[in-house]
Design a protein that fits this description.
By secondary structure, the chain is of the alpha+beta class. It has a single domain, classed as 2-Layer Sandwich (Alpha-D-Glucose-1,6-Bisphosphate, Chain A, domain 4). A seven-stranded antiparallel beta sheet has the order 1-7-6-5-4-3-2. Strand 3 and strand 4 form a beta hairpin. It is globular and about 35 Å long. It starts with a strand and ends in an 8-residue tail after the last helix.
């Protein structure tokens, strides 16, 4: 397992909303264009569905756990990812913990980690702005 995280002045409630609502994912992760079947509004534990990458590629996913306001876990292909929001005195820490079989995890650590860290910085920045209506 490896962890990507960023801390800053973001609002933890807004960070959770951005992280846990598929309709908001493209605000901070532009390559993810939403999802279907993973929950209405927020992700739902036990839900199976798809995340849409690059607007066209459906990736099978299953939400395995949700701790409302704090974390949610899903399997996307062979990788398990835990998305977390931790309040801090200055704002919050946003993080993604990634686990996968050893060769896949090694590749993700090298190739995907820099992207995840950039996306978490975007999420933190977005969490200091109000959510869009609707």
């Amino acid at each position: 397992m490896f962890v990507c995280e960023r801390s800053g002045r973001g609002d933890p409630v807004r960070a959770w909303e951005l992280m846990s609502r598929p309709q908001e994912w493209s605000r901070w992760a532009p390559h993810v264009r939403g999802a279907w079947g993973l929950g209405d509004g927020e992700v739902r534990s036990g839900a199976r569905g798809y995340a849409r990458l690059l607007g066209v590629v459906p990736i099978p996913a299953q939400i395995t756990a949700v701790d409302p306001g704090r974390s949610w876990t899903w399997f996307v292909g062979p990788a398990e990812m835990v998305h977390r929001v931790d309040p801090t005195a200055e704002g919050c820490t946003v993080a993604v913990e990634i686990s996968a079989p050893a060769p896949i995890e090694a590749a993700l650590r090298i190739g995907y980690r820099p992207l995840v860290e950039l996306l978490l910085s975007r999420l933190l920045s977005e969490s200091s702005r109000p959510l869009r209506a609707g």
